[in-house]
Amino acid sequence: DGEYTGKSYGGPGTALGKFRTCHSINYDPRVNKLIVTDRENHRHQYFDFDPGSPNKFEFSSAFQTPQLQRPCGIRMDFGNGHAIVPALGGPVGILDGENQLVSVIRVSVLLGASGHLHPHDATFLPNGDIVVATWNPGRISYWRRLPRKHGARPRVDDKAEL
After folding, report:
1. 3-class SS letters over 87-135
2. Cα 137 to Cα 116: distance, rounded to the nearest angstrom
3. Distance CA 86, CA 133 (A)
4. What are phi and psi of 109, to 5 degrees?
5. Which of 3, 40, 86, 130 could disulfide-pair with 119, CB 3.0 to 4.6 Å?
6. How far apart are CA 130 and CA 119, in angstroms?
7. CA dihedral 107, 112, 116, 120 (to 10 degrees)
8. What is residue 40's three-state secondary structure?
9. Does the N-terminal peptide bond of residue 91 adopt cis geometry, omega within 30 degrees of 0?
10. In 3D, which of 33, 26, 30 has the Cα closest to residue 123?
């Protein structure tokens, strides 16, 4: 059961704290804030909140990842501080704890011919593997995490599909 508090936030627009397509909301334990994916403004926005009162929902900051246009959401990997961002145009990005892009899975390039187009959601599994859901026609793909070579740094593919 629940009761509507009579509070709502945001509204249409491009200004910070406003949305063109408020597509996803999640809690980011790395910074103790709510994070809203604003798909058509190509950004994620952080908001301060008070779980004890619906009166506090205040814009805090925003970030964009140019390689991930039209992001559909963001989910945290609670084990290592990473986040995963599916982008409607085809790639899925992995962000580090500072929300910097460290890896790109080019889902639509690699699997588009078999119907894996338009990543719409993605999540980390407890073992570090990733599951991606695509929109229209609707497919789910499973990606196994590969071990990193000793001393290797994460690499961002500059030719990620946009």
Report:
1. ECCCCEEEECCCCCEEEEECHHHHHHHHCCCCEEEEEECCCCCEEEEEC
2. 8
3. 9
4. -75, -45
5. 86
6. 12
7. 60
8. helix
9. no
10. 26
> How confident is the model over 61-120, as pLDDT tens digits?
999 999 999 999 999 987 789 999 999 999 999 999 999 999 999 999 999 999 899 999
- The model's pTM is 0.88
Q: Which two tokens stand for residue 45?
A: 């926005």
Span between the terminal Cα atoms of the chain, in Å: 41
Q: Which two tokens stand for residue 106?
A: 């080019």
Q: Which residue in this structure is represented by tokens 């499973």? A: 142
Query: Any idea of the CA torsion for 56, 83, 160, 135, to the nearest 10 degrees?
Result: -80
Strand, coil or helix: what is 41? Answer: helix
pLDDT 10s digits, 7-54: 999 999 999 999 999 999 999 999 999 999 999 999 999 999 998 988
Q: Which CA distances in Å does 129 have to 30, 39, 55?
A: 20, 25, 38
CA 30 to chain centre: 14
Give the Å distances, CA to CA, from 123 to 13, 19, 48, 80, 161.
Answer: 29, 24, 24, 14, 20
